[in-house]
Write a structure and sequence with these properties.
It catalyses: a polar amino acid(out) + ATP + H2O = a polar amino acid(in) + ADP + phosphate + H(+). It is found in: Cell membrane. Belongs to the ABC transporter superfamily. The protein has 252 residues and is α/β, with parallel strands linked by helices. Helix content is 36%, strand content 27%. The chain contains 9 helices and 12 strands. The protein has helices at 42-49, 81-88, 106-116, 122-135, 151-163, 181-196, 208-214, 232-235, 242-251, and strands at 4-13, 16-26, 31-35, 57-62, 65-66, 69-72, 75-78, 91-94, 169-173, 201-204, 217-222, 225-230. Strands 8-9-10-3-11-12 form a 6-stranded mixed beta sheet, sandwiched between helices. A hairpin with a 2-residue loop joins strand 4 and strand 5 (65-66). Helix 3 packs parallel to helix 5. The radius of gyration is 18 Å and the shape is globular. It binds adenosine-5'-diphosphate. Residues 13, 18, 36, 38-44 line the site of adenosine-5'-diphosphate.
């Protein structure tokens, strides 16, 4: 089974059906970019994978585990909150806004979850945090507070913080769209490295050059459905569907 296997996922808010039966497979080590106009359901779908939202229908497996439910004799039972929290720990998520703790340094932000949630020793957590800071190019800023860092640096710390939990899957929700244009490149460069290192990633983005260069699969969503999916050279380079064509031509 692929690392992520989502089948016919539906989700409504009140009477607004935002996801109308989404299927998605992501193989281990692959990068999938989700593209589509605002309101098409991309963020909601990511949040469903990470169980920040409860799905109404369909099923999502991550690493062979059914998310949120146990399947016993063909019947679905909702998992306990503790079990859901354990599943969520395996998935890293990076948001548009970095959400770092403002009163903690970069290093302290990164060690927080491994210490509190996994009960790691201070030494182990700090050693890994320093390696991760080095990996995102910020080892020399380990003692800086978020307010002393640029937006791009804060987002790189947020990526390191997610990686500190050693996730099997990373979700990125428009990680560069709140950044000044000159800071976008440094965050995308870190994400590229992560992809090259073999991390499985699902990335909601409007950065076409990133999608073209890094994604194994590009998924174009509109109106809560997958309109078109495939390698970037097809979906971006030679889109078949008129809605994909219209979306891409607006970006150019
Ligand atoms: P995208 O990421 O493609 O811009 P979203 O998943 O953010 O799309 O939103 C899809 C639709 O779901 C939008 O119409 C949005 O208003 C609606 N929506 C998202 N979250 C909520 C919520 N918590 N309550 C009500 N409506 C929501």
């Amino acid at each position: 089974m692929p690392l992520v296997h989502a089948v016919n996922v539906t989700k409504s808010f009140h009477h607004n059906e935002v996801l109308k039966g989404i299927d998605l497979d992501v193989d281990r080590g692959q990068v999938v970019c989700l593209l589509g106009p605002s309101g098409s359901g991309k963020t909601t779908f990511l949040r469903c994978i990470n169980q920040l939202e409860t799905i109404d229908g369909g099923r999502i497996w991550v690493d062979d585990e059914l998310m949120g439910y146990a399947d016993r004799d063909g019947k679905l039972y909702r998992l306990k909150n503790k079990e859901i929290a354990a599943q969520r720990r395996e998935i890293g998520m990076v948001f548009q806004r970095f959400n770092l703790f403002p009163h903690k340094t970069a290093l302290e932000n990164i060690v927080e979850a491994p210490r509190q949630v996994k009960g790691e020793s201070k030494k182990t957590a700090r050693e890994r945090a320093m390696k991760l800071l080095d990996r995102v190019g910020l080892a020399d800023r380990c003692n800086a507070y978020p307010a002393q860092l640029s937006g791009g640096q804060q987002q790189r710390v947020a990526i390191a913080r997610a990686l500190a939990m050693q996730p099997k899957l990373m979700l990125f929700d428009e990680p560069t769209s709140a950044l000044d244009p000159e800071l976008v490149g440094e965050v995308l460069a870190v994400m590229r490295e992560l992809a090259l290192d073999g991390m499985t990633m699902i990335v909601v983005t409007h950065e076409m050059s990133f999608a073209r260069d890094v994604a194994d699969t590009v998924v174009f969503m509109d109106g809560g459905v997958v309109v078109e999916a495939g390698p970037p050279k097809d979906v971006i380079g030679n889109p078949q569907h008129s809605r994909t064509q219209a979306f891409l031509s607006r970006l150019r």
